[in-house]
Design goal:
By secondary structure, the protein is of the alpha+beta class. Helices cover about 55% and strands about 15% of the residues. The chain has 3 domains: about 10-230, Growth Hormone, Chain: A, CATH 1.20.1250; about 285-310 and about 320-385 and about 585-680, MFS general substrate transporter like domains (Growth Hormone, Chain: A, Up-down Bundle), CATH 1.20.1250; about 395-575, no CATH class. It is a multi-pass membrane protein.
Length: about 700
């Protein structure tokens, strides 16, 4: 033990730096791989969105359930150090297997760039993910507890600071990997055919995991390692079971009450174990309300990203894509952790307020709840700017005149005169039963009725171009385009069909007087050209530019022939671009991140400081279990049913967390902080006394027997 004292640096054991670097690499590796998973499932394995999302969430939940396993192995069998090393090896193998599963050339025997036998890839990637879940989950509770073990008694301040640095390493790792991994994926590679480089993007995390393992093993000589103390968990379960059984047997009034229900285990188990279990159960009881915090916290990846898709990502000169908003959380953490530690907490202490761990956690829950109130306010602002889409029992219609003369269109209760090359300024909304008849007429020609079976809950465009020529097109967009992209469709007013190539996407065979489907593009200016079956004269311009696309808009581009035979372009807006700026999301991210800093780091540190020495990992795993349950709550709520108004759902979540926060505050009032080391030291003293007494008995007995001889 004396050795660990000498390895000192700024009052911290040097071994800590190895542990922090190890955690940084491990988190980089994990988040880097996780950022790719959804894309890998949908693009490489070709799964649909629902299956991809379900498997993805299952994987994430598994990664938070396996810590229980890791903690059991560490606390009762291998010890923390050996557990971390052996499970890191499993983890590295898992990363490698996943990387191999994404190599097309593995089964691509005909070299056409697509795997010939997908099931091999699916099987390999599932084995890989299984090993990763076991590895990442298994080492999670051990690494933080092992770090805590490196400190001596009386180094509480440094130890708390360590948990902050540890958390910072987690977020620095995830931040860098969410930026770097997508860049790797875009690279092209392949032996026989070039394509998106998944093996490289999965391979880099695998290599980093190997580095992380090596770094950890190199520090081996400096660590304080505690021996595991037999199968703790089995003892705990048996002891609790016995206490409950015993309590039930003595339930009549005749038997005197005992102070704590666990005291009923006294007949069979020693005081030390009972007091250790009391410590754990008291903390576990406090954890019951905590998953609600994680249920809100985990929505920044799903709900808040979807909210960003209905906003505009213009920040001065730079443009931000909706899914990049998540990095705000990691950036803010890297800024906020040092500020909290160096500025906010000392200030609060100076004011004479005792800001205990549980008070910090209560404040964290309150801040997260407020973040959702802010998200709801932002949502209301967004809703004001969103177009009105048809409800389930409604139909929307707009008229677009692509002919050469004025047309009159009469709907039930109104008449529209539409000049050439114009559209009605908005979609008209009709109840399903209201839309009895639509007629088209123009000066000097008979009335033409429109016969079409309008689909409920959808938008339709009525194309007209001559007195008795019309076509109804179902738009197919009854919400804002996904991912903040822009929808563009082409309408052909030539007499023959054409193809259009726009920014590498092709609109194939758009027939005469008909509309193509929408295709989607990110922000910026896009170029396109027309390939018609009747050649376009050489003198014509055939390199067109779109208007500057922003976020979440949709346009119809009508292509018509001028008298010269050259094509010309008319642009009509279907859905206006998003106007609310993504910067409005920063306050809610800020509140949630502040909440996370005071809640999450404190939770790690509290779980460590209140746990008996032989159950440090078990309590860390209990803490991680609250995260897993939070994930499951989200899955249940998201699956259970949609609240039609998104802002109402945010308010519901905020209210739920607020209620939980109040309950937690009340529970925390009744919690008394303990120092497990002191309590254990008392037991050690008692044991020593007992041993000494025994020794005394023997020493007094010995001489007697000699004299008798």
């Amino acid at each position: 033990m004396g050795m660990s004292k000498s390895w000192d640096c700024f009052g911290y054991p040097v071994s800590i730096f190895f542990i922090v670097v190890n955690e940084f690499c491990e988190r980089f590796s994990y988040y880097g791989m996780r950022a790719l998973l959804i894309l890998y499932f949908s693009r490489f394995l070709g799964w649909d969105d629902n299956l991809s999302t379900a498997i993805y969430h299952t994987f994430v939940a598994l990664c938070y359930l396996t810590p229980i396993l890791g903690a059991l192995i560490a606390d009762s069998w291998l010890g923390k150090f050996k557990t971390i090393v052996s499970l890191s090896i499993v983890y590295t193998i898992g990363q490698a297997v996943t990387a191999v599963s994404s190599i097309t050339d593995l089964t691509d025997f005909n070299h056409d760039g697509t795997p010939d036998n997908l099931s091999v890839h699916v099987a390999l990637s599932m084995i890989g993910l299984g090993l990763i879940a076991l590895g990442t989950g298994g080492i999670k509770p051990c690494v933080s507890a092992f770090g805590g073990d490196q400190f001596e008694e009386g180094q509480e301040k440094q130890r708390n600071r360590f948990f902050s640095i540890f958390y910072l390493a987690i977020n620095a790792g995830s931040l860098l990997s969410t930026i770097i991994t997508p860049i790797l994926r875009v690279q092209q590679c392949g032996i026989h055919s070039e394509q998106a480089c998944y093996p490289l993007a999965f391979g880099v995390p695998a290599a980093l995991m190997a580095v992380s393992l090596i770094v950890f093993v190199v520090g081996s000589g400096m660590y304080k390692k505690f021996q595991p103390q037999g199968n703790v968990m089995a003892k705990v379960v048996k002891c609790i079971g016995f206490a409950l059984k015993n309590r039930f047997r003595h339930r009549s009034k005749a038997f005197p009450k005992r102070e704590h229900w666990l005291d009923w285990a006294r007949e069979k188990y020693d005081e030390r174990l009972i007091s250790q279990i009391k410590m754990v159960t008291r903390v576990m009881f406090l954890y019951i309300p905590l998953p609600m915090f994680w249920a809100l916290f985990d929505q920044q990846g799903s709900r808040w990203t979807l909210q960003a898709t209905t906003m505009s990502g213009k920040f001065g000169l730079i443009e931000i894509q909706p899914d990049q908003m998540q990095t705000v959380n990691a950036i803010l953490i890297v800024i906020m952790v040092p500020i909290m530690d160096a500025v906010v907490y000392p200030l609060i202490a100076k004011c004479g307020f005792n800001f205990t761990s549980l008070k910090k956690m209560t404040v964290g829950m309150f801040l997260a709840s407020m973040a959702f109130v802010v998200a709801a306010i932002v949502q209301v602002e967004i809703d004001k700017t969103l177009p009105v889409f048809p409800k389930q029992n409604e139909v929307q219609v707009k008229v677009l005149n692509i002919g050469n003369g004025n047309m009159t269109v009469s709907f039930p209760g109104m008449e529209v005169i539409q000049p050439q090359m114009t559209q009605t300024n908005t979609f008209r909304t009709f109840g399903v039963d209201e839309l009895t008849s639509i007629n088209i007429s123009s000066p000097g020609s008979p009335v033409t009725p429109v016969t079409y079976n309008f689909e409920q809950g959808h938008r339709h465009t009525l194309l007209v171009w001559a007195p008795n020529y019309y076509r109804v097109v179902k738009d197919g967009l009854n919400q804002k385009p996904e991912k903040g992209e822009n929808g563009i469709r082409f309408i052909n007013s030539f007499d023959e069909s054409f193809n259009i190539t726009m920014d590498k996407k092709v609109y194939v065979n758009v027939t005469s007087h008909n509309a193509s489907e929408y295709q989607f593009f990110s922000s910026g200016i896009k170029r396109f050209e027309i390939h018609s079956t009747q050649p376009i004269p050489q003198i014509c311009v055939n390199d067109f530019q779109s208007s500057r696309l922003e976020f979440g808009s949709a346009f119809t581009y009508v292509i018509r022939r001028q008298d010269t035979g050259c094509p010309e372009l008319h642009v009509f807006e279907d859905i206006s671009p998003n106007t609310v700026n993504m910067a409005l999301q920063i306050p809610q991210y800020f509140l949630l991140t502040c909440g996370e800093v005071v809640f999450s780091i404190t939770g790690l540190e509290f779980s460590y400081s209140q746990a008996p020495s032989n159950m440090k990992s078990v309590l860390q795993a209990g803490w991680l279990l609250t995260v897993a349950v939070g994930n499951i709550i989200v899955l249940i709520i998201a699956g259970a049913g949609q609240i039609s108004e998104q802002w109402a759902e945010y308010i519901l979540f905020a209210a739920l967390l607020l209620v939980v926060c109040i309950i937690f505050a009340i529970m925390a009032r009744f919690y008394t902080y303990i120092n497990p080391a002191e309590i254990e030291a008392q037991f050690d003293n008692e044991d020593e006394k007992k041993n000494l007494e025994k020794m005394n008995i023997y020493s007094t007995m010995a001489p007697v027997s000699q004299t008798q001889m």
